[in-house]
Amino acid sequence: MPVLTLLKRHALRGTVILISVFITLSLASYHLLQAQSDYNSFIKRLDYLFYDWRYNLLLDDERFPRANETIIIVDIDEKSLAEEGRWPWPRDKIALMVENLAAAGAVVIGFDILMTEPQINPTRSLQQQARLKGRPDLAEQLEGFILATEYDAILAKSFSRTDIVLSFLFQDDATIKVGQLPEPIYQLTADQPARLIAIRANGFTANVPILQQAATSAGFIVPSIDGDGVLRSAPMVQLYQQQLYPSLSLAMGMAYLVIEQTDINIRPFSTDYDMISKFNFVDQQIYTDFKARVLVPYLGPRGQFPYVSASDIVHNSFDPEPFDNALVLVGTSSVGLADLRSTPVGTQYPGVEVHANLLNGLLQGTFPVEIVESNTITALILLLLGLIFTYYSSRLGPFQLTLATIALLIGLVSFNLYFWFEQNISLPLASSFLLALALGTLHLLEGFLSERKAKRHVTSVFGQYVPSAHISHMLAEPARYGFAGETRQMTVLFSDIRFFTTISENLTATQVKDLLNRYFTPITEAIFNHQGTIDKYVGDMVMAFWGAPLDDAQHPLHALESAIEMLTILDRLNPQLLALGYPEIRVGIGINTGPMDVGDMGSSFRRAYTVLGDSVNLGSRLENLTKFYGIDILVGPETQKQCSTWTFRFIDKIQVRGKNDSVDVYEPLAPIDQLPSHWPAELALFDRAYQAYLAQEWDRATILFTELLFQSTQAALYGVYLQRIESLRDQLLPPDWDGTFLHTI
Known about the structure:
The chain is α/β, with parallel strands linked by helices. It has 24 helices and 29 strands. Strands 1, 2, 3, 4, 7, 8, 17 and 18 form an 8-stranded mixed β-sheet that branches. It starts with a helix and ends with a strand.
């Protein structure tokens, strides 16, 4: 190869690498420095398109479920305007609507309309004209009609029939302060407003005081419009004068569930600022972005909720049955009243139905989530993709590079869709897509220009990011796996920190959190290392199971090996904890094998993939009994039977509370080929002692258990038997007594 050609080829390669690095760093920097506040760049607009495409992909009733509560929209539509006249209508007509809806059984009525100015009493106007015309007698005669035409008071009185939630607007202009605001739902401390990142208001346009005072509450109706004019998100709360006020949907949900104040979680966003990360709505956690916004959980195109014409409500010519215990939103779909929005599921979408979707999401507890860390995660993905793609590109020929680019694009989209469909998490896609496309094209051009041919195949870059073996297998063969309930032979493990209540009493809340994090992380890794599935964490307790969703023919052995590794981890962890000033941690572990019901279980509000059944309950009881016997691990009979490569010490024949049958329980000692030399003799002596115990030869059993007590390094069990023998000596045992001990805990 001529030297000049070689130099040109290296120069081309160096230039391509520099361009690749520049593109990668530029896109990563965008997400770290600019994306959080960007609303209108090319990348952001492309992300908007990806979001809308992804949102409508496979959108059905299961994607974002409907709440059990009925939500109905009373529509000030074209028909209503034609029959009742142009908007605004007289307040007595709205009062008639309230009366009819309340009579039909509506429990909450929310108004997506403003009533900011008092309605002039026509009788008082006539009185004024009569006095000006020199007719004081006529003015006096009209006095008796004043109350009948005080339409604001009439409307306010109708509000007593049911819960009424009004709406208001926040303004940027501090000079605008119209009407009366409702009570706030959260009072910030004196230093929080300056640090809090939230949508702030300086003024407001609210309802006349007589109506607001009669209403249950009110919520703002300010939309959150993206840079392309589409309504994808909405703030749940806004900040005004150190207080947080709710949106219309949140105010309606709180009125329906009789909540006066909501529990808001405020956490640090940076060293100088805080953010609202979530708020607790009854038993549900609603996550928000850094400005307390949620992505609107649209159920589908316009018309997902029943619409009833407002004129039919006025004339009481509607079917009242659907309104019984319903939440009603009064709004408009009329083009002339300008409350139509562009949304991911369609243009000309009534704003009142946006509130209905938000209210449904609150009651159901299902929202798409845009996590605060999404831009940081995306930046890291971009850096990894850019560096890996640049490194491997020189080893691929044009055809291989094309396949790799296509595979990468498919992988990125699949990765993004996984989080969307499985976790309801929205991650940016445009920059990753552009990076893969740009680098693929750049390196493909380099390959053609330099006429290089590949020397080896490269695995898909996306394979670097497969989260776990479980998910990898499930994605590879989705038809084999599901969340439908079924009964399987499985193994369950319960692990609990001994005396955790005492430990936590001597630590601060921050120290307890730190201690548990240091403990749970390696313990969880041990479970995952042995193909286990985490069921749940409850305080300091860990529950895991083996045999689902993936089949595992050796699930008892894998569970046992996981438990042993957990104890080994604690031996390494405890010196670290002591160095930090924390107490040592000891755990009790219960393992049981047997038939269990596994599947997606729970309520319409919250579900979980979990296991149930008697075998599960026994596993929990075994964990609890480890303290009684003074051992670390206690396993059921089926686990012991299926772990044939291990040596076990028989512990006891027990009967747990609520069960009639007794079971043998065991302690795992070591693999058969690794059993310490002292154990065979000790196990043989224990067997003799236990046989004497079964034969009710109390003196002989006492001698043998006492010998074990002084010989063994793990003697707590033998002390249990010695105490039990003293209790049994004076009892008259039944003829069929088989040594079963009844545990009442």
